[in-house]
Amino acid sequence: MTDKIEIALTVNGRTYAVRTEARRTLADVIREDCGLTGTHTGCEHGVCGACTVIVDGEPVRSCLMFAVQAEGKIIRTVEGLAKGNELHPLQRAFIEHHGLQCGFCTPGFLMLATAALENGLEIDDDKLIDVLSSNLCRCTGYENIIKAVRAAADEMRGQR
Amino acid sequence: MSAAGSGRSDKAKFLGVSVTRLEDPPLVTGKGCFAADVSFPHQLHMRIVRSGLAHARIKSIDVSEARAVPGVFAVWTAADIPDIPPINLREGPNETLAPYLQWLLAKNRVRYVGDPVAAVFAEDSYLAEDAADLVALDMEELSPLLSANESPGEFEPGHTTEPSVMRKGYGDVDAAFRVAHTVVEMELWIGRHSGVPLETRGAIARYDVGRDVLELHGAAKVPHRNREAIARMLGRSINSVHLIEGHVGGGFGVRGELYPEDVLVCLAALRLGRPVKWIEDRREHLMAANHSRQQYHRVRAAVAADGQVLAIDDEFFHDQGAYVRTHGMRVMDNTVGTLPGSYRIPALRTVGHFRLTNKTPAATYRSPGQYEGTFVRERLFDVISAKLGMNPIELRRRNLISPTEMPFKRQLNILGEDVVYDSGDYEGQLDKALAAIGWDELQVELKRRRAAGEAVGAGIAMMVEKTGLGPTDGVRISVDTTGAVEVVTGSASVGQGVETVIAQICAEALGVDYKRIRVVHGRTDRIEYGIGAHASRATVMTGSATHIAATKLRAKAIEMAAELMQAPVDALDIVDGNIVRTDMIAGPSITLGEIAANLVPTSKMLGGREPGLSADGWSHVDHMCYPYGTNLAVVRVDRETGQVIIERYLLAYDIGRAVNPMLIRGQIVGGFAQGLGGALLEEFLYDENGEPLSVTFADYLMPTAREVPQIEVLLLEDAPSPLNPLGVKGAGEAGITGVGAAIAAAIGDAIGMPGAVTRLPITPQRLKAILAQKHECSVPATTSFSEFSKV
User: Fold this and answer.
1) What is the pLDDT of residue B459?
2) Strand partners for B214
3) Three-class SS of residue A80?
4) Is there a contact between A42 and B34 if contact means CB atoms under 8 Å apart?
5) Residue B9: per-residue pLDDT
């Protein structure tokens, strides 16, 4: 368990060579070995969703996955959302609609919503709330997160 | 107002405008720096070994096996740090409470599950956790005390578990009860819950031998106060200790208090010679960070035939948990301060029992004492109205303090300040709230639906809050030679948007774009004084100081510009960072950066002026300011499941003056969600052995997007505070304060039992039990709003 294994992780299009114990979570390896600290750990037992990343197109709680399980998969984190200085429509919408306060849960919500919108979620309110209720936010009361995702969805649909 | 209020009409406005936040760009791109994101070369990781028993005598602790693990640097117990005192009260020593303070590591006894017993320092966080499991504790189990309203037990020989009884009040309560037409009595319980920010606590300390400076990263809320406390505990000079705040993942009163772990990493950094990092896990957080709220009240009211409440008499029991922490008895104090609320209440008697139990220690959670006191008072008013057969709104009207009575002084001293309500039109706000929700039509509709068999109802809770805790705060503003503005404050950011709000206030007074203003907070190495962010004080106190400093700085810039531009002072204004002539359309102008360049110490233009384009500003207040609110809730109860569905919720709230309405709404809506958690879902439960049952997010239930309805916010600016130059009042606690009270009232109305809800949270099980006992209820079960004549 404490022996280190060499793995290659592909995160945001870049490949990281990592030596890690098999027991280390994907969240810890993304943060500490890849240096991408935008992925946050809020509960480490899969409830809060702050650590949500996208693995092979699906939102995943990176605290519930071992890094070694993610080898060979395409991993995306919040750091990969913007294209250079151009923010992703969801990032812009979160700013414009005041969809964050402390910002700790924000990366998880952004990745959750990105996956949902990319996977073609039809934004009827009930489905949207259903998806967003998988993550916890303690500051906003969710209203502005819902507004932001709805606004970004409209914008992204218009672009298609 | 000041000269900064005058100027050209084309000038951009920043006060009262919902600008987007300066804080957001790094946070949405994953570039924030929260506690766990701070790392230093060669750092050690600390893991705390915690008691698994609620109450036990420590017979021995064997750390040898843990210490032998390769990569483990040290393992400490209380015996290794005998010279460090316990964590004291923030307000200074208190002889009565001193025996009950918490040591960094438990000595002799453990008093709650989660009590720190040993600290392991290792090169890797996983390794530290492995080694912590190897620390062997030999304990003799003692029986735990788990209720604050049973007879006190022994804390240690010579000290009971009731350190103090707080008695406060005014007026002749006994006389009021003698002449009362009606006396109403109730028992009420507020559940144990707390802030539970999404980011757990974290502390990273490093000691720089070369500079002889100890740094603590991960600070929040009150960095300057904690710096003093840490320096004192470690025997260091205050200016050799610095606290540094990064991004803070939610505060809510809990984060930023001084805890054993904060001091342990500092001590370890000094003694082990390596940076030391500690990041709390969620299970630890739920058993180690401050709990809050749990109180039991036995309250009665003396009421005249016309509905005037003559006196309130309240005996209550505060469940402090295992130790007295930094706040001492302030939550109890604030409960009393809140109890009379928006009503006259000519006489008040309170007896507050401050009791220790074998649970996680308690302190403040957003709206401390106010959530509790408002629940007690508003529940009492609903039962009074039921007993008198008077509409609950009419009852409130008859007791509300009128605008002509402002400022209204109560014979109470709370948190060291006399209670003087500064301004307000409570009944005016009540009318606005009722009109906004369409109260009369709502009653007709609810009556129709009830007749059709639905359990639907509406409830009200009125409240007054104390905000803007002083007494004083200062900022320094400076402009560099590029024209960039920096405001250095002793405030703190807990995610509420303090950078943006302070920048807006500065921008408005100075005449620059708020985006050109950098706001520094939470850094003791940048400013020597600060009281942080708590008690809804940042906008009021730091904001006022910013306004004062920016006004001074503007005057200095204009005075210099007048000489450079050969123009009279009163013909100049600052617009978007340029000093311009107000008496010509396209006249000459000069930038703030150029002014700053002319004020450098070596400048030939300096003359007799102080060098630098900078100014200090200080705000002082003798009293807090008191915003007020009216909560209206409409709920539906599912009689089968005991579930409560919030159909509508309106909060009318007078903010005095709104600096950024979008951010204030954000505070209110977020606060409401937390209040809803405390009203329906969240509770720290224990089994009969004191084992905590709520140590995961599967057991401690916080509201999700599914549970939080969209609420209506009526933001009012009817009563600006006369106590500060901007007229602002605090907003941080507005959303949460009245939620428990309003929802309890609405449920009572929905099920036709106005006084039935006496305990928060109102879980489905509890509501089912109330419905099952409907016939045995001691309070008349027939009254509801719509059965009274029109309000």
Assistant:
1) 98
2) B207, B241
3) helix
4) no
5) 57
